[in-house]
Amino acid sequence: MKHKSYAIAIAFLSSAWTAVSCAHAADDSGDAFFKQNVEPILAKYCFECHSHSGKMKGGLNLDSRSGWAVGGETGPAIVPSKPEASLLIKALSYTDKDLTMPPKKKLSDVEIAIFTEWVRKGAPDPRITAASAAKKAFNGMTLESARSYWAFQPVRNPNVPATQDVGWAVNDVDRFVLSRLDQSGLKHNPQADPRALLRRVYFDLIGLPPTYEQAEKFAANPSREAFASVVDELLARPEYGQRWGRHWLDVARYSDTTEKSTDGERRIPFAHTYRDYVIDAFNSDKPFRQFVVEQIAADRLPVESHADLRALGFLTVGRRFEGNAEAPHLIIDDRIDVIGRGFLSLTLSCARCHDHKFDAIPTADYYSLYGILASSTEPLDLPQVGTPVESDAVKKYRASRASLLADYDKHIDKCLEKSKRLLREMAPEYLHYLAASSSNHRVTEGFLPLDTPRGLLVRGGPPRWEALIAASLKRGEPFFKLWNQFLALPRVGFDEQSKRVLADAVSNPTENDTTILAAFGGKVPTSMLEVADTYGRVILEALKPPVKPADAAPPSKPFVATLLSDPASPLQFTRDEIAEDLLRFITEFQLVSRPEGDAAGKLREKLTVLEASAPVERAMAVKVGVRPLDPHIFVRGDYHKPGAAVPRRFLQVLGAVDDKLYNGDGRLELAQAIASERNPLTARAIANRIWMHHFGAGLVATPDNFGVMGEAPSHPELLDHLASWFMTHDWSIKALHRYILSSATWQQSSAVQTVALEKDPGNRLLWRMAPRKIEFEPLREVAGRLDKRLGGRSTPLNDQNSRRAVYGYTDRFRIPALLRNFDVANPDTSISHRSESINPLQALYLLNSPFVRAQAEALIHEPEISKFADVRERIRTLYRRVFSHDPDDKEIAMAEAYLGSTKADASGDRQWTSFVQSLLLSNEFMFCD
Fold first, then answer.
1. 203 and 223 in contact (C-beta within 8 Å)?
2. What pTM value is reported for the model?
3. Cβ-count burial of 556 within 10 angstroms (0-12 exposed, 13-18 middle, 19+ buried)?
4. CA pair distance 696, 673, nearest whole angstrom
5. Element (H or E) spanning 261, and its range?
6. pLDDT tens, 836-857?
7. What gap in Å lies between CA 220 and CA 216, rounded to an integer?
8. Which of 82, 316, 581, 884 can bridge 620 by disulfide, Cβ–Cβ 3.0-4.6 Å?
């Protein structure tokens, strides 16, 4: 068909609407109008290609209000009350040959008129009530109905059930477990052997075995009081924080390195300070609520709270995605993911590109959190931790650091001057960008390049020019009046309608800027780009220094020059804003161009190399940005395609916890909402994790996913009981340890019951204590002597390193095969529960590793072992050291058969070392009953 101008098409459709308006004159309900007229057309023509159940072509979903509001790859499909600005109406009207929908056959004039009138009415859509934007579909649920899901229900302290075996239960944990066993017709196991119980609690709490003497002492008096004393003693040891801190470091995706080398240095200089914070927090029994808040917003807490800034490494120790153009956004996505899975047991990142397919997390919620985390930045000058002893090395370091920071300050000043100048001098290019990216005059789909023949534009330039124009028009200034009128014209037929616009302006010179009228000179522009050219020439001319004749008064400044230099102009910005743009996630520059950003990056790299071996400790802190981000939904997760604006706020499904909007960056409010006692997720999530590390599996078997696709809790009442108990006991993890470990459930033996094994092979009903495979760290540390120093920089886990594995150098880019073979957590992502495999490589390591062999050699040369010349006595002593008990006669006979005629002296070291290694390969050593 012959293309008509968009305005003419709208007029034609308005007349067609007359044919249907009479039939609905009595019905002024927008919702009813939608249901009766619009939705049937959508279902008939649109849902096949634009719905969740269809193909969602172009990323556009029309089966929900949020779908058309967010829009597809070209942006929001509808601007309520403005059919002339709505892409959907343009597509249906066939006024743009590049945008025609449905593509095979145009709708009838009456159908198009129905859509036009619907949009003019404000696009009422009852699929989400106007009263609450929270009612959206997730797996067939709305946000309101999703609140009835078990994980979003308030934590309650359920009544303790009555049980048949009243004598077995020690505390309420047992009564909840016993109730489920009674219902299933199963019986609990008896208490474990005292020596097995002691070994279990030692490995559980500190990752090290008890001595033979400790095992014998407890075996002689295995009372509940004696066991409680053992638990208290272990919780007071520094090894407890090392053991349980490692569990949390898996969740926090801890690593000592980035993915990319900086002059051969990939170390994150102060990652270890976060690791040490975590260990210290567990050892001091920092309330978990405080632990949560500090890791998200320690810098926002009042000084008197003595918040530990090292905690902010939780945010900053993650991946950096070097070399990826989307790195700034991927970093935030990583932080949203670790907050969601770590604290809330929710997979929030699934809502990055679309509403969560299963859980009540709309895309809007994801970008609300995005806005919070993107409103902070990482300072170059990290805060110092502690007071180092002054030395020549410290003085040299401080001098080098001060010099680099001074060079960086000079670079900021240079960027400030250049950015201010170029933002004005490249006015033609910025106006071209605004014209080419406008909805009516877009020249290409997707992202417009920032490079121009005269140089690079900056990402923050177009929005600032747009704001300048809008502010000038709002004040009634005439300079940009013609610009706005031309911009409102459609691209198709622009030259025809621009004649009328220019003629009207010429006939009303007092209402328009005379400089602009003169610049057009009566020549009608044929495109918006020509309009941009004209405005650009006028602005550049106005920015030229005025020529002052001799003995004449200073010439007046052109209006536009005054407009651009006004202190309140959006083209003005501060030094702090430039500094922030140079720092914001390394690659996201808004007011500076790529070359300036790269130069700043080189200076930061030099500082990284210096800090990697610094004799001073610093916290990997963050700070509130100069300009909190007002977030927009990125259509299909593409940051080049911003969609609807959203506020900074907490998850809507948890509105009962915190339904306020955040005025600042929002990190403190977010942290407090997560740590709130009204939040049904946080206490449940950590109680489940603690239970998981004690029993091998959580009450919820998917500890980082309490959503619909996660497992339901095996004992929901027990989970709520533990969460409630935990909160009423000051969020104390040590108190929760004592409570769980004192239960008869945890102290059961691992013996197999044939009937129970058939009914419940996974032991989900807890009829026994399942044997646990010892993890890599305690497996490595159990046989030999350990360096007990606390804290400090990480060092590689080589043959010479006898420190605990938690202090080993964790390389995100090159994870050693040793760690992979033993299922050590991958630091690229948050790991709630390590996989447990048994493979030949593990046995080969224990048999051939120089480190294990060195530990075995050291063990046989320890005085308490080497002093025995008698083979039997040496065998017995080694058993006591490795297994904390004496060998029986059969084990001694087997050992003697293996050792043969080997003597208990230096001549038999090789054979004795192999014997110790065979003990380390045994199931008794590898597993804990």
1. no
2. 0.83
3. exposed
4. 30
5. strand 257-262
6. 888 888 888 778 877 778 778 8
7. 6
8. 316
